[in-house]
Design goal:
The structure holds 2 protein chains of 2 kinds. Chain A is an all-alpha fold. Chain A is 75% helix and 1% strand. Chain B has a 3-stranded antiparallel sheet with strand order 2-1-3. Classes of the chains: A mainly alpha, B mainly alpha. Chain A: It is a multi-pass membrane protein.
Chain lengths: 490, 442
């Protein structure tokens, strides 16, 4: 792994630089460290930082940019004629990349010599046979242009990596030398190091912004791509969801409405379970329960929140579904066809959300000042009257915020609905019917051997965008409500 | 003051503290009802918890036992040569095996009719196993060798009650008549149950072999992902928190970061999966299904959790510590790194462990970066390969099993959940111990 070696080399340069910088600073004051501006170690750190940070930034930037440059260069050399009718440039590029990976693997296992893998004389048919024999996955026969492109791809990548390694090491050495030259007694090493550290801290904090940016960009670009292939109006207002799996484009119906309906229906069932139970649990825990009951019941309830969602998914699929089927199925009331249904997923999701609602509401109820309760008792109200008429109205904005947050969790929840809600998209009012949700369809459209050029795969990004906007809206609304009304009593 | 007063001759209702009037009764009843609702809510919550855990344990336990058929078998040199000389070599081996088994049963005084198909339904393809063994150990020819052969998953199911004699439909997997032989073998002590080590140490099997599926390889995959998360999320999270808590000025940029962090904490996990797919796989061409990519995605997902708890831990260090350090001439950076950070460390570690536990159980993003839909057949070749070779992770493996058509995999899925929950429990207990042991109240 060349990257690991690169990291180790740069680390070694930095280590040597640390020792050299520190020693030089000490020498410049004849070993009397009282004459140094900063502690000796700061001179060492100055050199080490200068050796590592610029080199690291260069390496990361290079690794990000190189694939783009290589891809566009290789893609430019593919002639129009090499692209079959029903395919696209992106698909061919994916094939080129696979072929290049296959060649890499074949060279590694020794079934083809590096020279042969590179040579222009190599026959496409011959190479594809070699690749198949060596176990590299090649789905179809390689064609001449693809093989040439793959060879070019490998060559460019190899040159790029070599160039990067050289430049990174060079930059690291230059940084170290620069730092060592600075290491004199009157150099303000501590200030330099601390300023550098501060920039690193700011960089770390900015990762949150970068992540959001990454999410928004990856969603937006792919969504735009999707709307180029599929009309936006049909997506937002279509009432039918029927992706075709055979051909590309044309026959698929990708309307989001049935999915949104399924999502909201499951969420409503979940909230109908979680809100009453969670709220009453919170009221009991904060107003009635003795300290001992509270110290046992509260952590136990919160265990429910710590259980991974895959567990709930399996619980829905294998325990709750069959149970409901026994009661409401054809042997019972006859409302239910199969174990996976809105009710199954909603019920289990409700269980998952109980601690979410109860913890948040508990905090909010506890934040209502005792004086308000005392005032109410003083007027002769019973405890429940106090809670209903004084505490709850005071805590209401916070509780509404908590419920909105729970709703946003319910809408974004994936595993429970993937396993528990079913796969059929339909607009129906019967909660015992299988329906599907936005998240479940994102999973089913993007897993497996999807190529990212067809509308059937790209629709997942549009669904993700919808999901992101809805949950973001709910979160912002919840925060707004909580912030606006919460401070009244503090 | 007013001059009006209560008219003296107004009739007064007779009240007494010994007599409860209707309104008080009503109010007291309402009070009791209200309290009962609360207790019922707690009760329902705990009831769900108990149901969840009993169903996990009840359904998961069978994954930890397996039934094996233990039998002494001798293959002579002549038989070996005869079998190798035939066209269907493995069939010849199983014929010898069946003959020997029949002899053993007859010696025990039991006579059950069975043929090669029955054995194949109960034990799978025995001949292949035997042939492989004898070709590797030719010196064992002629000596008795004890073979432990795992039975098929249906027979496993028969032993732990998933498959019953009445509920069994004859199929190419198992016939009801086969169970007579199974019963006879059990009586003879040839079929026994034992702890299923291969489930814990093994890798996933194909879709047609639920009995051989193990979770070991995906535990390793999860381990590598957690290494990536720990190596990235902890330093980045702590650095970001230090900046925001100790250095950041009150300006728009800081506000932007804060808003972003609180929003990211509430973004559905599947959106992070989309991000990982688009950025790490589509754009950067990192290998699909690699723990490295999974770790990167989970890092981004865990960061807000770690930042929030680290900031709380930093905030809990009293300002007097900072002022004392600054007072004796430390710079602000020195104050933070020499004094505040060490004091906040237990809180930071607690938050990190809880973040890791959350990441360990997360499934949805892993589905999108390709950690399902293939069979993780083995362990990675070495430490570095562990990061980039395709592997599964515990929750993704559980999902894969749950999505398979053969219901015998459901046992494995539940068993996998028990293992996953054991890991999570240890992490949470560690976090609680850290908090109890090192947390300081100022």
């Amino acid at each position: 792994m060349p990257i690991i070696w690169l990291v180790l080399i740069v680390a070694a340069i930095a280590g040597a630089g640390y020792v050299a910088g520190r020693a030089r600073a000490m020498r410049s004051v004849e070993g009397d460290h009282r004459k140094l501006h900063s502690l000796p170690s700061y001179y060492g750190w100055n050199v080490a930082l200068k050796a590592i940070v610029p080199a690291f930034i260069l390496a990361v930037a290079w690794l990000l940019i190189q694939p783009l440059v290589v891809s566009s260069s290789v893609s430019g050399m593919l002639p129009e004629g090499a692209i079959p009718e029903n395919s696209s440039r992106g698909l061919i590029m994916a094939e080129v990349r696979r072929a290049a990976d296959g060649l890499d693997m074949a060279v590694e296992t020794g079934s083809i010599s590096p020279e042969d893998a590179r040579s222009d004389a190599a026959e496409a048919a011959e190479i594809s046979q070699v690749l198949k024999d060596s176990g590299a996955v090649v789905t179809s026969e390689l064609t001449e242009p693809i093989l040439r492109a793959a060879q070019r791809y490998r060559a460019l990548n190899a040159t790029g990596h070599l160039l990067m390694t050289g430049l990174v090491i060079l930059l690291s050495v230059i940084g170290a030398l620069w730092g060592i030259r600075e290491s004199r007694g009157d150099f303000r090493a501590r200030n330099t190091v601390e300023n550098g550290l501060r920039s690193l801290l700011i960089g770390a904090a900015s990762i949150a912004i970068l992540t959001t940016l990454g999410i928004v960009l990856s969603l937006v670009f792919n969504t735009i791509e999707f709307f180029r292939l599929y009309p936006a109006a049909d997506f937002f207002f279509g009432t039918e969801w029927a992706p075709s799996f055979s051909g590309r484009g044309g026959s698929s119906e990708l309307g989001v409405l049935p999915l949104l309906w399924g999502t909201f229906y499951v969420s409503i069932v979940a909230l109908a379970v979680a809100v009453p139970i969670g709220l009453f649990a919170a009221i009991y825990l904060s107003e009635y329960a003795s300290k001992r009951v509270r110290s046992v019941a509260k952590p136990l309830l919160e265990v429910l929140a710590g259980i991974p969602t895959i567990v709930y998914g399996l619980f829905a699929l294998l325990t709750v579904g069959p149970l409901l089927l026994e009661i409401f199925g054809k042997d019972g009331l006859g409302w239910m066809q199969a174990g996976t249904a809105v009710m199954t997923a909603g019920l289990v999701m409700g269980i998952m959300l109980i601690p979410f609602v109860s913890s948040l509401s508990d905090d909010i109820i506890n934040a209502v000042p005792q004086a308000m309760r005392d005032g109410s008792y003083g007027l002769g109200a019973t405890q429940s009257e106090t809670i209903r008429q004084v505490v709850l109205p005071a805590a209401l904005p916070g509780i509404v915020g908590a419920i909105l947050l729970a709703a946003s969790r319910a809408i974004g929840e994936t595993m429970i609905v993937v396993l528990g809600a079913g796969a059929a998209a339909r607009l129906s009012l019967n909660p015992f019917e299988a329906m599907t949700t936005v998240t479940a369809k994102i999973v089913s459209q993007l897993t497996g051997d999807a190529d990212f050029a067809s509308p059937e795969a790209l629709v997942a990004f549009a669904l993700g965008m919808t999901l992101f906007v809805i949950t973001l809206g709910l979160n912002v609304l919840a925060l707004f409500i909580v912030r606006k009304y919460r401070e009244q009593y503090e | 003051m007013t001059d009006t007063s209560i008219p003296k001759d107004a009739p007064r209702a007779k009240t007494s503290i010994h007599q409860i009037d209707a309104l008080t009764k009503k109010r007291n009843a309402a009070e009791k009802r209200f309290k009962a609702y609360g207790m019922a809510a707690i009760g329902i919550g705990l009831f769900f918890l108990i149901v969840l855990f009993t169903s996990i344990i009840r359904s998961g336990a069978p994954a930890f036992t397996r039934t094996v058929l233990e039998v002494d078998f001798t293959l002579t040199q002549a038989q070996y040569e005869e079998a190798e000389g035939q066209l269907f070599k493995t069939a010849a081996y199983s014929d010898f095996f069946i003959a020997e088994l029949e002899e053993t049963l007859t010696a025990d005084g039991m006579s059950v009719e069975f043929d090669a198909d029955t054995i194949e339904r109960i034990l799978g393809k025995v001949g292949g196993t035997l042939r492989e063994y004898y070709r590797a150990n030719e010196d064992k020819l002629g000596e008795p060798v004890t073979f432990s052969l795992a039975t098929s998953s249906r027979v496993d199911g028969y032993f732990n009650g998933r498959v019953t004699r009445d509920g069994l439909e004859d199929s190419r997997f198992l016939m009801a008549a086969d169970l007579d032989l199974v019963d006879a073998l059990e009586e003879a002590g040839i079929i026994t149950s034992e702890f299923n080590w291969p489930f814990i140490t093994g890798a996933d099997s194909g879709v047609d072999n639920p009995g051989g599926a193990g979770i070991g390889a995906s535990v390793v995959g999860s381990f590598f992902m957690m290494l990536v998360v720990l190596a990235l999320a902890l330093p980045i999270g702590v650095a970001a928190s230090i900046y925001l808590e100790e250095f950041a000025p009150q300006n728009r940029f800081t506000d932007l970061i804060e808003v972003n962090i609180s929003n990211l904490a509430a973004v559905p996990s599947i959106v992070f999966g989309i991000l990982g797919l688009a950025v790490f796989i589509q754009f950067m061409h990192l290998p699909q299904s690699a723990p490295l990519v999974g770790g990167l995605v989970l890092t981004l997902m865990t960061l807000p959790t770690i930042i929030i708890s680290t900031r709380a831990a930093l905030k809990a260090v009293p300002p007097s510590i900072r002022e004392a350090a600054l007072g004796i001439g430390a710079s602000r950076m020195q104050t933070v790194f020499h004094h505040v950070l060490p004091l906040a460390m237990p809180g930071i570690l607690t938050g990190t462990i809880i973040g890791l536990a959350q990441a360990l159980g997360e499934t949805a993003p892993l589905l999108l970066i390709g950690m399902v839909g293939f069979v993780a057949r083995g362990y990675p070749d070495g430490f570095l390969q562990g990061f980039v070779e395709p592997n599964s992770a515990m929750p993704a493996q559980i999902y894969t099993w749950a999505a398979r058509a053969d219901s015998a995999f459901y046992d494995k899925a539940w068993g996998g959940i028990i293992i996953l929950l054991i890991f999570l429990m240890f992490m949470n207990i560690l976090a609680v111990i850290l908090r109890r042991r090192f947390e300081r109240r100022w």
